[in-house]
């Protein structure tokens, strides 16, 4: 540093004032020659000031050379402080300030700006405001509904989803965001764990609603379908009531008893075991989530492409709620389409896109086109991109900044890769770690639990080694848990981590921190795997398979397929005594009960399912053996949508899958 300071100092003087530099050099030279001679005051002062200035100017260069990320750390530090200040300021406002209030601020600021663009529709902020008033007024006058009652929303990605959510926010009603792919048992389960008393569904989902109608009717649930008229007893058409309703604003008093701790939305996650769980996102959490886009440099001038499902955190919290903060325009799509993606970006002048790892891979595997770089996208924000896809994406589609982050719907810690390090999910930052104390602890993947030392405490992994990410549960990093599911909530809590009696949130994610303090995602522990961007809970699939007619036991796991992100579902099953394996029946059962991403693609017929000493099903060996008919003696079947059956898996089909000729 001293050397650089002197060097910087000389360089600076030489640049800004060569005569001055020459003069000082001369003075120094004389000084050197008659060391005892007193310095003239003026020279001394100048010298000191110059050294001081030069040191300040030289420090950044030194840091940049020897600590390349320190600037980004400092900037991020600044961002964190800004976010905190803004958050605290909002929390202090009276009346209380929530996400809805931010929407109303945006509407007042630019009522005629486009808020949502969908297919050929354009909706300005004020239209969204009025439309949501109509929905709210129509619902409020519905007998049996009271402002504040929980409502379940069962609809695909369309403007009505957003309008209805705004309407319910105006009524102070928590909203359960149901996954529109789920049916029957799962649908009922999800509906029930929110304790909703009203179901609002889009007209395309009429049949799915009819399937569960008897149970809903029995519970006295109000079932509203977004259609003009519905002839099915028990389901009411809601659209014309909305059309007729007033668009007058709703009195604030309707939501006056909402506090930061009140549930705002329920988002379903297929965490580790069993049926989906409803993560409770309270008002405070939603307010915190407002910053995700804005803190990454998204502004009101940006146009954001939202094509991920609105019932998940990425689409709803990051995309929709994030845009409310920035006041950007949302381009909403029913679903992600790799082939239309860039045409849409060009058509709508999209500047910011969201992704999950699979999305980036799909985009990179589309055929190359001449206009691949012809678009205005400048930022991609999301999680789960692999390093090799990251590089390919940027080299193919141009200079797009990639902001990879890590967060979970219910978790209490998140990271953002603000330094743009390829492959990392974030970086250890002093302030961040103070605010959200997290550590990586040693994990036993075979026993599926953290390793404990002689005192029963967890052991932090050294840098460079993989460990389980756990984050201390505090007031500013709370873990709210799952609705109606204390057991699953408790499973995510980890006690006695560093001290007896402390309490951490177990993310279930294995991470690694490298020498430069970058954090890398390694794996997810336990009984979940990801396929097509969705979490598949193996126990849920297993439960469904074993209620089929002929199957006795089912051990579900994910296997890797070349050229595909994540793992595809496979089931090792045993058949009931005196029953036969019936591919058609199992196919029908699976299609009825499971969304397509969760259906086991391969079935391996076994005489017995191996279990561990603690009756956990053994998966490691099965995963390893995968679905290779050359290696496995047991009969193998593959799900065949054309035949509508599970058909025997031949060596030929196997090699076509491995060579990429059959896409799964
Ligand atoms: C996109 O930008 C171009 C040029 O800036 C402009 O002419 C066009 O109208 C814009 N399209 C949309 C849909 O805003």
From TrEMBL:
GO terms for cellular component: endoplasmic reticulum membrane; plasma membrane. Its main location: membrane. Residues 105-426 form the AMP-dependent synthetase/ligase domain. The keyword Kinase does not apply. Keywords: Cell membrane, Fatty acid metabolism, Ligase, Lipid metabolism, Lipid transport, Membrane, Nucleotide-binding, Transmembrane, Transmembrane helix, Transport. It is a multi-pass membrane protein. Its EC number is 6.2.1.3. Belongs to the ATP-dependent AMP-binding enzyme family. This is long-chain-fatty-acid--CoA ligase. The lineage of its organism: Eukaryota, Metazoa, Chordata, Craniata, Vertebrata.
């Amino acid at each position: 540093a001293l050397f650089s300071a002197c060097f910087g100092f000389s360089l600076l003087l030489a640049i800004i004032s060569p005569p001055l530099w020459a003069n000082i050099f001369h003075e120094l030279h004389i000084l050197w020659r008659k060391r005892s001679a007193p310095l003239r005051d003026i020279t001394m002062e100048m010298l000191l000031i110059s050294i001081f200035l030069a040191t300040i100017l030289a420090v950044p260069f030194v840091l940049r050379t020897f600590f390349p990320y320190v600037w980004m750390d400092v900037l991020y530090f600044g961002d964190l402080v800004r976010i905190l200040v803004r958050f605290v300021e909002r929390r202090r406002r009276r009346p209380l300030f929530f996400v809805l209030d931010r929407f109303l601020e945006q509407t007042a600021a630019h009522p005629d700006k486009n808020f949502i663009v969908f297919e050929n529709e354009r909706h300005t902020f004020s239209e969204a405001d009025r439309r949501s008033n109509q929905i709210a007024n129509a619902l409020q006058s519905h007998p049996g509904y009271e402002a504040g009652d929980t409502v379940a929303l069962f609809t695909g990605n369309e403007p009505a989803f957003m309008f209805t959510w705004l309407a319910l926010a105006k009524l102070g009603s928590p909203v359960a965001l149901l996954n529109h792919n789920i049916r029957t048992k799962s649908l009922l389960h999800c509906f029930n764990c929110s304790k909703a008393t009203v179901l609002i569904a889009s007209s395309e989902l009429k049949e799915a609603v009819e399937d569960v109608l008897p149970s809903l009717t029995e519970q006295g649930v109000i079932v509203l379908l977004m259609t003009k008229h519905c002839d099915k007893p028990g389901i009411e058409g809601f659209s014309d009531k909305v059309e007729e309703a007033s668009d007058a604003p709703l009195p604030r008093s309707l939501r006056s008893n909402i506090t930061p701790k009140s549930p705002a939305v329920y988002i379903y996650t297929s965490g580790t075991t069993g049926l989906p769980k409803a993560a409770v996102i309270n008002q405070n959490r939603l307010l915190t989530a407002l910053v995700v886009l804005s803190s990454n440099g998204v502004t009101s001038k940006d146009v954001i492409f939202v094509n991920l499902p609105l019932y998940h955190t990425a689409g709803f919290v990051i995309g929709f709620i994030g845009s409310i903060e920035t006041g950007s325009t949302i381009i909403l799509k029913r679903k992600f389409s790799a082939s239309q993606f860039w045409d849409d970006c060009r058509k709508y002048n999209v500047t910011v896109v969201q992704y999950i790892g699979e999305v980036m891979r799909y985009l990179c595997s589309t055929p190359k086109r001449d206009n691949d770089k012809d678009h205005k996208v400048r930022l991609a924000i999301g999680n789960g991109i692999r390093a090799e896809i990251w590089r390919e994406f940027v080299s193919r589609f141009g200079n797009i900044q990639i902001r990879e982050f890590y967060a979970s719907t219910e978790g209490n810690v998140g990271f953002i890769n603000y330094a743009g390090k390829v492959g990392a999910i974030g970086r250890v930052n002093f302030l961040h770690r103070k605010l959200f104390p997290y550590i990586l602890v040693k994990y036993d993947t075979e026993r599926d639990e953290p390793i404990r030392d002689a005192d029963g405490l967890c052991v932090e992994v050294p840098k460079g080694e993989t460990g389980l990410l756990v984050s201390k549960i505090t007031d500013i990093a709370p873990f709210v848990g799952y609705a109606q599911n204390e057991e699953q909530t408790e499973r995510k809590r980890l006690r006695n981590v560093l001290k007896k009696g402390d309490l951490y949130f177990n993310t279930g994610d294995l991470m690694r921190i490298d020498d430069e303090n970058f954090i890398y995602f390694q794996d997810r522990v336990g009984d979940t795997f990801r396929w097509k961007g969705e979490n598949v809970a193996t126990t849920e699939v297993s439960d469904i398979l074993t209620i089929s007619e002929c199957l006795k036991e089912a051990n579900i796991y994910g296997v890797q397929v070349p050229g595909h992100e994540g793992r595809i579902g496979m089931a090792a099953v045993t058949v009931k005594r005196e029953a036969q394996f019936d591919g058609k029946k199992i196919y029908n059962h699976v299609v009825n009960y499971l969304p397509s991403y969760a259906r086991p693609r391969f079935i391996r017929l076994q005489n017995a399912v191996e279990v561990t000493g603690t009756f956990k099903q053994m998966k490691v060996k099965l995963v390893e053996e995968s679905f290779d008919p050359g290696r496995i003696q047991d009969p193998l079947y593959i799900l065949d949508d054309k035949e509508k059956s599970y058909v025997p898996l031949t060596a030929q089909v196997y090699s076509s899958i491995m060579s990429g000729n059959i896409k799964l």
